[in-house]
Amino acid sequence: MLELQHLTKDYGSFRALDDATFSVRAGSVHALCGENGAGKSTLVKILSGAITPTGGSITIDGDVHHSFTPREAIAQGIRAIYQEFSLVPFLTVAENIFFGREPSKAGFCDFATMREQTRQLCEDMGVDISPDARVESLGVAQQQIVEILKAVSTNARIVIMDEPTASLTLAETKVFYNIVRRLRDAGTAILYISHRLEEVFDLCDDVTVLCDGKVTATRRTADVTRRDLISLMVGRELAESYPPAGRAPGQEVLRVDNLVNEHLHGVSFTLHEGEILGFGGLIGAGRTELAHVLIGEDQVDEGSMELHGKTYRPGSARAALAAGVGLVPEDRKHQGVVMSLSVKRNVVLTVLDNISALGALVSGRRENAYYDRFANQLGIRTASPDNPVSTLSGGNQQKVVVAKILARDCDVIIFDEPTRGIDVGAKHEIYTLMRQLADEGKAILLISSDMPELLGMSDRVAVMSDGHLVEHMSREEATQEKVLEHASSMLTLKGGTE
After folding, report:
1. What is the DSSP letter of 349?
2. What are phi and psi of 109, to 5 degrees?
3. Given pLDDT bands bounded at 50, 70 and 90, which one contains residue 497?
4. 3-state secondary structure at position 362
5. Read out DSSP for 34-57?
6. Contact between residue 422 and residue 38 where contact means Cβ atoms under 8 Å apart
7. 355, CA 20 to 30 Å: which among 82, 178, 195, 382?
């Protein structure tokens, strides 16, 4: 259905896409894999009409095109579903699906037809969402489904999905898989972009790998292994995915006893130096809310905390940092970095008091010294430290967030979904960094919805469900089945479903 021939895109002397050639079959899910900066976004923008290629052609059902406008791409049946939703939150599901092309009757918007066609779409896709529900009242998974319904409603023949499961739980991902398979079985060609390799092997029929703007391989998924795919993506062999511990956990650093607020119900645990304690659970289980309590962003009604044997009750994130507790948040773009500031200034944000002269003026010499130290330690890659942090890849942005915490010399570091939205090579670097920090004696609390990551990186696993900490397991005891069983335990007791 879709064939790309020698597709190229230059930005001045920089070649973002280099002679890309591959095809996508009708009725198939075709994975597009590669590290951040490999050219995936450039290719998607060309197909959706956002940018014009420098050279090459796009053939759809035998018709050759050299570029599209966005309107022409839609007319050809191409629709892109991005990780960042394009829905209007205060409109209903039906109004979002037909936004800009509302059916009319006698010159007025025909809401009845919109609702009926939306109901029929939901039935065809096997989902139960009310056409009259406001989008802002829906969960992330349901909003993702509405984006798909929006694309399907325009008779899209080629659907591009960019990191579609990044914010979904395991249970929600299974529902999403069923919808993708229905589209595939109906003859739709799906170009599927994901950093989660397990999704590539679970869902995709074919895979194309991009590396430095070039197509390095197109294969049937059944004919490649995970190791093959990683090697093709990063251009090198990676060591084992999860680096082993180099030391046993030491003395207790953090003790949490019976924390209670509207989100937490009697949470207790300990964390030791040199240990990675992983927290598993479904979205909404209370893990991020716990992190916000630990850094002083939220308070508790009952319970206590001790840090190095002394009472610890921070009133703010600033107080937590001063005490040696830092958070690498799950939303790095909005909570972890200031996108408009330079890479260098982001790294030193937590230590401005240490690098300022006369309490106000930043010392350039001290700023450069801090930046050089932590940029070298973490391997932050940038054309210039004075460039905005927004110019960095996701993996390098994550390293900048970590550098901010390390600059403050925190003893306890909380990583909340640390590898969400970053490529396999950058993931390995983050894993190696976390293990190095633990081996140096840092106490690490890992929150992750990525099950292989949770099980592979944690020395112990704690599982939360509906605000309760329901289970502690050693690394050897923890399995995916056990984590999921405990993660849904409180929902089952309450008669809920997930």
Report:
1. G
2. -60, 130
3. very low
4. strand
5. --TTSSHHHHHHHHTTSS--SEEE
6. no
7. 382
CA 281 to chain centre: 16
Pairing of strands 63-65, 28-33: unpaired
Phi-psi map region of 72: left, alpha, beta (phi>0 left; psi -120 to 50 alpha):
alpha
Q: Which residue has the tokens 């099980």?
A: 455
Number of neighbours of residue 357 by Cβ within 10 angstroms: 11
Strand-pair category, 356-357 with 189-193: unpaired
Beta carbons of 343 and 400 less than 8 angstroms apart: yes
Give the up-direction half-sphere exposure of residue 7: CA atoms within 13 A in the CB hemisphere.
32
For tokens 């939205």, name the residue.
421
Burial of 152 by CB count in 10 Å (0-12 exposed, 13-18 middle, 19+ buried)?
buried
Beta bridge partners of 465: 468
What is the Cα–Cα distance from 332 to 203, expressed in whole angstroms?
28
- Dist CA 246 CA 352 (whole Å): 33
Among 325, 347, 262, residue whose Cα is nearest residue 299:
262
| Sheet hosting strand 265-272, strand order edge to edge | 265-272, 252-260, 302-307, 310-311
Q: What pLDDT sits at residue 83?
A: 67
Write out the two tokens for 46: 């060309």
pLDDT single digits (tens) 406-454: 888 899 999 998 887 777 777 888 899 899 999 999 999 999 988 888 9
Contact 53, 46 (CB under 8 A): yes
Angle at 330 between CA 282 and CA 374, to 5 degrees: 140
Class of CATH domain 252-493: alpha beta
**Contact status, residue 397 vs residue 336, Cβ threshold 8 Å:** yes
pLDDT given for residue 414 in this prediction: 96
**pLDDT at res. 301:** 94
Looking at the predicted structure, is the pLDDT value of residue 498 above 50? Answer: no
* Mean pLDDT for the stretch of residues 173-192: 88
Per the prediction, the chain carries an average pLDDT of: 87
Q: What is the pTM of this model?
A: 0.65
Q: Where are the beta strands (DSSP E) in 189-285?
A: 189-193, 206-211, 214-220, 252-260, 265-272, 276-280
Task: Find out whether 20 and 56 touch, Cβ atoms under 8 Å.
Answer: yes
CATH topology agreement for domains 2-234 and 252-493: yes
Task: Report the percentage of the chain scoring pLDDT > 90.
Answer: 45
Domain boundaries, the chain: 2-234, 252-493
* CATH number attached to the domain at 2-234: 3.40.50.300
Nearest to 66 by CA among 49, 86, 79: 49
Cα four-point dihedral sign 300, 301, 306, 310 = positive
Q: DSSP string of 265-316?
A: EEEEEEEETT-EEEEE--TTSSHHHHHHHHTTSS--SEEEEEETTEE---SS
Tell me, rounded to whole angstroms, the distance of Cα 307 from its chain centroid: 31
For 87, 264, 284, 454, the CA distances from 128, given in Å and listed in that order, are 18, 30, 21, 31
